[in-house]
Amino acid sequence: xxxxxxxxxxxxxxxxxxxxxxxxxxxxxxxxxxxxxxxxxxxxxxxxxxxxxxxxxxxxxxxxxxxxxxxxxxxxxxxxxxxxxxxxxxxxxxxxxxxxxxxxxxxxxxxxxxxxxxxxxxxxxxxxxxxxxxxxxxxxxxxxxxxxxxxxxxxxxxxxxxxxxxxxxxxxxxxxxxxxxxxxxxxxxxxxxxxxxxxxxxxxxxxxxxxxxxxxxxxxxxxxxxxxxxxxxxxxxxxxxxxxxxxxxxxxxxxxxxxxxxxxxxxxxxxxxxxxxxxxxxxxxxxxxxxxxxxxxxxxxxxxxxxxxxxxxxxxxxxxxxxxxxxxxxxxxxxxxxxxxxxxxxxxxxxxxxxxxxxxxxxxxxxxx
Length: 369
Known about the structure:
The chain is of the alpha/beta class. The chain has helices spanning 11-18, 65-73, 75-80, 93-102, 112-121, 166-177, 201-207, 219-225, 252-257, 259-278, 280-295, 301-309, 319-332, 347-355; strands at residues 31-32, 53-59, 84-90, 107-110, 127-136, 138-142, 157-160, 192-195, 212-216, 229-233, 244-251, 311-313. The strands form two sheets. A seven-stranded mixed beta sheet has the order 1-3-2-4-11-5-12, sandwiched between helices.
């Protein structure tokens, strides 16, 4: 690999990227998501780009609300016509990146760190970020009996979802800004960073094996429902309280071969986001219904309501914040000299936005040439 391309050099990150972590048993890379069976293909609808299907991936998190709602309400299928929208649900970024690389999915909703990692590991050849989806929805929740202030975090056990994932990088960066030292690989130091799957973090909290967690929604609100206290909302650390938490990515091969299909998915995303922001209560219910269909259990109101309020749905990929997050990974010792030129291609998104009477969005100078 050319020296001017950055990679995650630490062994733990390399393993995290290479292996399909935390996959679900129903599929090689993720579980098949249920779709809204009431969605009907319009009479006379044609296949887009001659495709039988477009395979869409997302996580079972509220920060992926666009994909959840678009699946549940049929926005994707409406725009794809006679081309079937197929879905897979993932638990972790590395497995979704591997699915994208293998062709198991064509387009995915995913966090910034896996996007950066996947792009740099492939020497900029495997993916493009083609749109935004969400900002915010990440909190540091702690046991109020053990941690009463930010300085009390020192010496405690704090969970993050995965070594090198978006929240792990954010927490390690915050720790460094406090002047504390933590080995990024082992998680040992002035704070003990405990990498824990979001699905088991609430139980770990209840058992006392962790003192808190830096996690996305709805895990953060699950901890609050279990007696935890929000000590810090990550949004407070960012200008205008906005930072990218969910991107839309596509394989470069699929983008080049099937631009009309990609444009259709982006049009559905923009329409979905507009509907979500205009109908927040109905959208919240739709997202929860899809979560229930995918996981077998909907979220209770005391978790769903506060989680939903902390997430901002947006078409803007907030590209400048992605570059900042990459620099956080550098400072944390997980990334070296990232070269992100070309990671974005917002051409089709801006075409859709302008056609809808909306403002175009910026790639912060990181667009494909």
